[in-house]
């Protein structure tokens, strides 16, 4: 099955000639930096032309940063502008907690003088990006022997925990955003109850994002270090001081460098499999589970083994359903910016 058939999206304006050969700007906003890209539409696809990155907190508003990108690259004739936002978008507005300013599509339209401006949740954008990928963009972690077309679940741990879905309408998939990463974490074992109490003292309400994210990785680590008294190696102390913990602990596990690194990643992978299980069951995602984001890419070796899959299919009564769910890893790290552009290009004329 090719990717186009696997993730056939509902894009009502895909055939519209008015959406052919137009310039689109897309942005992926993050707390530390914002990525901009220029795309041109051609033959029902988006083609990247150039990219630029800016420090998010260097600008008094998002519109000012956008105008800087336009000026720096001498851009003109921009038809549409799509913005991937790390938070909920309601009625064209968003106020993500990790960003220094609020976002309003109508204000951005007026200030940038771009006629059509779209705010879209970053994981919903990732879901739209599935429609622009080919088979080489995916790593199949598990192929179903009894595939049944249906809804698709998207899970992306990174700076936060993104979750989205694609509703199967009988012929196409329709992406939608969720805020499932902010649902409460539930422990299963005695050690996990202890971990929960450790996090409760820090956060009050313990969400899955407190466990499955870059901060979550560190939370698991410091629980093992401070409560379970696992030794912190000197080399990792230096990496933490250099603000390089995530890569260091993952590489430490990949290289089997220290016991605590292996324990952190093993624990993280169990939690990842469990939340993937929950999301798939809640969405009845027989069409598949898609993993995306920086952390899954770095954990590819651990995802591509039986341990993750065996933890994923554990259920009280739904093992038979879960074992037939195909699982994919997106190998591209630019899913948000591309997906936002797909949404802008083909969702309307």
Brief summary:
The protein has helices at residues 3-6, 62-72, 105-112, 122-129, 190-203, 214-226, 234-241, 245-254, 259-283, 294-298, 300-303, 306-312, 319-322, 335-346; strands at residues 23-29, 33-42, 45-55, 78-85, 93-94, 103-104, 116-121, 138-142, 152-157, 161-168, 173-177, 288-291, 327-330. The protein has 349 residues and is an alpha/beta fold. The longest helix has 25 residues, at 259-283.
Descriptive account of the structure:
The protein contains 14 helices and 13 strands. It has helices at 3-6, 62-72, 105-112, 122-129, 190-203, 214-226, 234-241, 245-254, 259-283, 294-298, 300-303, 306-312, 319-322, 335-346; strands spanning 23-29, 33-42, 45-55, 78-85, 93-94, 103-104, 116-121, 138-142, 152-157, 161-168, 173-177, 288-291, 327-330. The protein has 2 domains: 3-130 and 335-346, ATPase, nucleotide binding domain (Nucleotidyltransferase, domain 5, 2-Layer Sandwich), CATH 3.30.420; 136-331, Hexokinase, domain 1 (3-Layer(aba) Sandwich), CATH 3.40.367. It is globular and about 60 Å long. 43% of the residues are buried. Strand 1 (23-29) and strand 2 form a beta hairpin. It is α/β, with parallel strands linked by helices. The mean pLDDT is 94.
């Amino acid at each position: 099955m090719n990717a186009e058939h696997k993730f056939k999206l509902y894009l009502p304006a895909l055939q519209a000639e008015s959406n052919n050969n137009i310039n689109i700007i897309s942005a992926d906003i993050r707390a530390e930096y914002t990525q901009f890209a220029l795309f041109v539409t051609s033959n029902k696809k988006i083609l990247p032309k150039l990219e630029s990155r800016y420090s998010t907190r260097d600008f008094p508003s998002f519109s000012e940063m956008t105008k800087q990108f336009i000026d720096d690259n001498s851009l003109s004739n921009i038809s549409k502008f799509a913005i991937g936002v790390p938070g909920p978008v309601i009625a064209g507005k968003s106020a993500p907690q990790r960003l220094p300013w609020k976002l309003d599509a109508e204000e951005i339209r007026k200030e940038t003088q771009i006629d059509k401006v779209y705010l879209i949740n970053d994981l919903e954008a990732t879901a739209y990006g599935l429609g622009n990928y080919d088979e080489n963009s995916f790593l199949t972690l598990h192929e179903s022997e009894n595939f049944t077309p249906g809804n698709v679940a998207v899970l992306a741990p990174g700076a936060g925990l993104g979750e989205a879905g694609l509703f199967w309408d009988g012929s196409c998939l329709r992406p939608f955003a969720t805020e499932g990463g902010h649902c409460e974490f539930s422990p299963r074992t005695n050690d996990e109850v202890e971990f929960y109490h450790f996090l409760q003292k820090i956060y009050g309400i313990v969400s899955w994002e407190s466990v499955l994210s870059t901060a979550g990785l560190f939370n698991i680590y410091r629980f093992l270090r401070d409560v379970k008294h696992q030794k912190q190696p000197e080399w990792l102390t230096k990496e933490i001081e250099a603000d390089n913990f995530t890569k260091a602990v993952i590489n430490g596990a990949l290289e089997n460098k220290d016991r605590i690194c292996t324990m952190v990643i093993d624990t993280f992978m169990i939690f990842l499999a469990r939340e993937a299980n929950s999301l798939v069951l809640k969405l009845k995602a027989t069409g598949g589970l898609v993993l995306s984001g920086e952390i899954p890419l770095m954990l590819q070796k651990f995802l591509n083994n039986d341990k993750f899959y065996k933890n994923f299919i554990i259920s009280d009564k739904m093992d038979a359903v879960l074992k037939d769910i195909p699982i994919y890893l997106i190998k591209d790290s630019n899913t948000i910016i591309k997906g936002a552009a797909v949404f802008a290009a083909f969702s309307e004329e």
